[in-house]
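=== Structure Prediction Worksheet ===
Name of assembly: unnamed complex
Input type: mixed (protein and possibly other molecules)
Chain count: two
Listed entries:
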Amino acid sequence: MFTRLRAFGFVAGFLVVPAVLYLAFVINPYVQAFQIALTDWRGVSRAPGFVGLENFARLWDDQAFWQALRNHGVLLVTLPLVTIALALFFAYLLNLGGGGASGTMRGVRWSGFYRVVFFLPQVLAVAVVGVLFKAVYRPDESGVVNGALIKLGLEPVGWLTEPGLALWSIIAVMVWQAVGFYVVLFSAGMAAIPRDVFEAAALDGAGRVRMFLSITLPLLWDTVQVGWVYLGIAAFDGFALVQVLSVDRGGPDGATTVLPLEIWKTAFSYSKFGYASAMGVALFFMTITFAALTLRVTRRERIEF
Amino acid sequence: MTLTTEPPLTTSSAAAPPASGRPRPGLLTGLSHVALVVWALLVVLPLLWTLLASFKDNTEIFGDALQLPAELRWDNWARAWSKANVGTYLLNTVIVVAAGTFGTMLLGSMAAYVLARYRFPGNRLIYYLFVSGMAFPVFLALVPLFFVVDQVGLLNTHTGLVLVYIAYSLPFTIFFLASFFKTLPTSVAEAAMIDGASHVRTFFQVMLPMARPGLVSITIFNVLGQWNQYLLPLVLLSGAKDKWVITQGIADISTIAGYEADWPGLFAALSMSIIPVVVVYAVFQRQIQSGLTSGALK
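=== Predicted Assembly ===
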């Protein structure tokens, strides 16, 4: 009895500090957010008044909200697609691209070096990357991209100031930063596929493209699915990069804005705390729906090997 | 003699398929090398360009971007370090991340350990309460979090930021470490207990050392995550510029560089925030790669 009591004391002692911190700074704010979303709270000076679902009705007519949703839609389609395609391509080259004449599959030379370089952007802070690319994208010859274009005799491009182009320039930076992570992730998955599967396929006369589509991709499906969920969740964020990189924080004229940025601005620039929380609730339900849908739609038979 | 003639025979039969229409491996290998080199350059060149620009003066920066600096102007770096406060920002970041990661690892491993290896009523409930935190976007909590931290008087303090970092790092840390502690054998811990070691001692002296690989991975994950954090310091430290961390400092230098016309200082500040990370990455790249991706493979 005494030993059980001692074990119980130990368990309680180990759990109490993390649990208190977690309840105070994570659970409590999340619960409060749902309550504040139903009020017209505008800060400490005024008591919050209950307005029911009025904030959500206003969201429905909010141009900035819909613009942000459109941008999330574009991000949700292009970011995972481009990143995963590039990462699969590079991972395949690095792991199996140096295939020999008799069907043995191995990586290209210096594949370790490429992996290290490709992964590097992943360890840099998004805000720092944003500032860096703000300089890279400068509209005149002082920016790297336009400097090179002018050298080639072409007109400089307003990468971040053209409304139709700005979001794509930002997506390019997201892809730039993300690809390396997925190259390493997919490489680990490819390394786990037994070599003799490839050798058997090579003996049957399968080319490298065929091998990729019929062997690598199906056997890697679980990992690709994880990557898809990760990138999809990233597509609902984008705060740091858009806040730092875009002109006028989400501009030009809202062309690059994202929901997290609208939440931050609504709360801390306009002090509309109730409305900002309603946006947060909307964002939460979209993220959850996306994750649940992806896991359901892409579910497949797991292939054991 | 027959033995030596055999190898050429097999290679000639293996070389037959490429002749029947498929491109030769040599060409494909060459093209794949080109693709890899192009992407490697795309990664490295912007960073290299930033480093070079940190030695330029304003005229060079606003001139041709592809030009080298005329001389190594280290005063850009000195200005960024002291006048633009990059030194302070870096020091603040080191303090916050060190405290935040240490606290996360200590509290996270303690909670994960008892949740993984002790049976008591409410165990599953507490575990899922912690793990559910991974599903919520931070932006949902942003407004209330600001007021909670304000109410306990920790707004604009490092203590407040560190506690919030720990709280938000716990879900993933506990999720990861709990599954790790479950894989460890029970016999060693039981032997230690029979020898009279207390629960606490067993944890710190037997179980933690055994869990080292998992601890290393998740420590790297937390260090990078907290080092790169931008949103939380932006909201929780906005009123105290002397307490800022490097990410918000760099973003701020970027906006004021326009007014003060100190673009070389901005590039020097950028270089200073990038180089330490690149050096640490170069040394620990293997552990960092596996540390960051192991989370995704769980």
